[in-house]
């Protein structure tokens, strides 16, 4: 099947079956497409819809986003993960706003902005500007790797380059936005990672993987390696007024810029830290260990509840440490596991605030 026939069949399918009522498909402009594309990176559509709607309610324009405090942006992102996306979103908004609020209209300039790679830039330009630009997100990689039976893991530079060339050849000069959305829809709804619905696929007739009866072997998975794990303790220091001590994490790295609990390598280090501050504390309560998995390692964390018995010593700390009341926590940008932990502790009354 040549590229022209591929495009024709795909667009005919999209006209009937494609998704056209997603929130970012309404009032299309570069800003809305950009935000949606960043949110959709490594995140399912169903998870993004609510976040996108709340984000747009609060930051309807790039100027609104640029003028906001990073804290508030992170708060609206909390739970989506990969927080560097939110920090880059804020940086790019400030750059675009400083240039009059107009997004660049060339691939080179757009992909030079923080957090915008070649595929994201192509999606913005094709959907919002009608330009003929190829994309290669996860869904498109899977569709093209199967259609052409491309061997190898797409994360390898050689395989990625081959797929980019195929994507370029398949991208039409007209109806570019519809084609881009159709490719995303095909991968998300029919050509799925597991249990693909080949019988409903508009281009199944030309699919090499189907002809070889090897659909589930494409694309090749990332070579597996054992995930390391890291053991830490989180301190939940609380007083009789229901305040807990939170700490802002460094701007870069895991959970960058979010509020979290003070973190320690072991329980002894945790108690020594409290003693150095002349805190009079009650008996610690060590909760069961929990696991949160990142893309490259497992974080095994043990929460330790520590009641503070001399609240007069509860002054604002150095090093990003601040005391917050329970009813203030919901307004902060918190990592999802920390938010769940605190909600569980407060809702289930698992600790005695009087020590």
Structural notes for this entry:
This protein folds into 2 domains: 215 residues, Endonuclease III, domain 1; 120 residues, Nucleoside Triphosphate Pyrophosphohydrolase. It is built from 14 helices and 8 strands. Strands 1, 4, 5, 6 and 7 form a 5-stranded mixed beta sheet that branches. The C terminus is likely disordered. Helix 1 packs across helix 11, helix 8 packs across helix 11 and helix 9 crosses helix 11. Strand 6 and strand 7 form a beta hairpin.
Short description:
With 355 residues, the chain is an alpha+beta fold.
Describe the SSE topology.
Layout: H1 3-17, H2 30-39, H3 45-58, H4 62-67, H5 70-77, H6 84-98, H7 107-111, H8 118-129, H9 138-147, H10 157-170, H11 176-190, H12 208-211, E1 229-238, E2 243-248, E3 259-260, E4 263-264, H13 267-276, E5 285-286, E6 290-293, E7 298-307, E8 321-325, H14 336-348
Parallel strand pairs: 1-7
Antiparallel strand pairs: 1-4, 2-3, 2-8, 5-7, 6-7
Helix pairs in contact: 1-11, 2-3, 2-8, 8-11, 9-11
Family: Belongs to the Nth/MutY family.
Cofactor: [4Fe-4S] cluster
Enzyme class: hydrolase
